[in-house]
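Lab meeting notes turned into a lecture example. A postdoc, R.K., suggested we walk through two folding results consecutively so the class can see how the record format repeats. The first protein's sequence and structure tokens come next.
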Amino acid sequence: MPKNKFYVVWVGKQPGIYTGWGDCKTQVEGYNGAKYKGFPTLELARAAFHDNHEKYLTRDLNAPKKIVCDNPLVGEPLADSICVDAACSGNPGILEYRGVDTKSGAQLFQQGPFAEGTINIGEFLAIVHALAYLQQRNSDWPIYSDSRTAIAWVRKRSANTKLERTVKNKELFNLVDRAEKWLHNNSCPNKILKWETEYWGEIPADFGRK
């Protein structure tokens, strides 16, 4: 993931865009309710600064929630599993994705922000990232996603997106190309399962920006 070089302060001593963590820290340290986040490029930082900070800041989802489902045909999600989700502020827009431990809600990985992405691409990359993450740990845990489209793309080993490649989303498409190549070169025992939002509520990896 690109290293953050620019920091947006929406709420702080002096809201603005700062170069480097040191300058940002001066504006938010000790400030009650400060809202800030780092970005890899000035372009992304500027877009975020003039937007609603709630699109970029996640609520605390780490507190585990007990899921009870009274439909015997659906049952309850497997606790020993990974959930993935993506967030995109537009179509296309600034994209992020992440994976969490289903039982504890602990974040296992997060990538982004990426310019000019789509939610389906983010969901696709999140599943492949989870597969690689579990392979490295010799784990057969299943993966939950609430995106039927992304699940289908992974099974076909191809991201069937209509998004055009541009200079701005070059980095993102590099990841897509790598993900497709990885899928063709690796086989995994992990099941990819549909998260039943209707019965279980929002997926634990949800960014909480709806």
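The second example is placed directly after the first for contrast:
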Amino acid sequence: MKKQLWVIGLCIATCLPSGWSQRMEIIQTSQSTSDRLTSKGVVEFVNTGQPEESSLCIFVDYRHTFQEFIGIGGAFTDAAAETFYKLPANKQQEILTAYFDRTQGIGYSFGRTHINSCDFSSYSYAYVNDPADTLLKTFSIEVDKKYRIPFIKLALERTHNELKLFASPWSPPAFMKTNNDMLHGGKLRPEYYRSWALYYVKFIEAYKKEGIPIWGITVQNEPMAVQRWESCIYTAEDELNFVKNYLGPQLKKSGLLPSLRLMIWDHNRNLAFHRANAILSDPQAAQYVWGTAFHWYVGDNYDNIKRIHEAFPDKGLVFSEGCAYPFSWENVKQWHYGEKYGEAIIHDLNNNTNAWTDWNLILDEKGGPNHVDNYCLAPIIADTRTGEVYYMSSYYYIGHFSKYIRPGAKRISCSSMTDDILATAFINPDKSIVIVAMNQTDRDIDFNVWIDGKSAPVKMPAHSIVTGLIKKL
């Protein structure tokens, strides 16, 4: 039998009009080298005509545009903020630069925080603790002023106040729930529906007073999960009723809609379409809802996100939480966690997601703090005992998107001929074109980038991610 040598080529084809550079800068992160968001220089295009049919190609066409990109970022939890302030001043500045600086960092433009405590708090707390205070006159965010609010303010400063922040509750105060406990599930008592709807407004107003605008809210974090930490159950009927008859009207009455984005679900992709369909099919509820938020913890189910867009094309989609776990120092070194992020971001974006949110921005040497020992990983791990900071592969993989695809960008056509290469493409507001391609295989792939009858060779190492940047002249 004759041995054949297969040369694998990846081609990116589009028609670029005059006015775009005939060069593409290549930025690379790879497991086998020290490249971490490293510029590999530019590739020049030469006239070559149509690519061969045997070439593996990705076809990109800027003329077909899809959803608008809002941003990528992570969560400002109590754990992240507390860890941040336990570090030396120079390390604090390093982290702010790493996440929020567009030139020296990865340019985060989006974020999440929590209403009341969550599992990644050092203890459980609520902003109101008096069952008789149905008008929430004792509402206070004083607890947030120690770590979380100052941390968010520093991020806003680094992003020139362009950071968009949404907030999610893990649980109402214990007295508002059927189990009299912020933990272990339970449901919102009907007699507190109005007070709880007002609670969101009080939070938004309190944060605004601190100089922190809230871009959006979700109704409830993981509404179908009974957890040993802060949690609260809403069936589809419960969430529909609460949004239609209480939360939506209260937000409107307070003058927060439509500028505030109200999102439903905020749980896994597997049931995302069912929940979205149940609520958005009701016009009275849908009028208050901007979009659907979702997580990644049970299956990939990317098609379910596509189905939501197909059924409700005028509604937004936000990936609101995902993290790697369990925590161990060995896992901090694992490359495949970065690939998990890259794969999810590409699929979610290609299925019309507008924004993408990682979980904790920073965690400590235990994967916390976490008051129920639900430790996990974060793109940046800080050892508060030594002051050292460690960057996981996920930090760099996320950066290949967040640093180069900017708010206001539009996704453009990007069709791959091979499952070995995942890719997405966007055109930025400044008309630069960004192509992100990822190689999860164990082999290097040499590919050609084809643009309007011209091509340039690029080498993509095994287990790597590449961003191609074509600038408008």
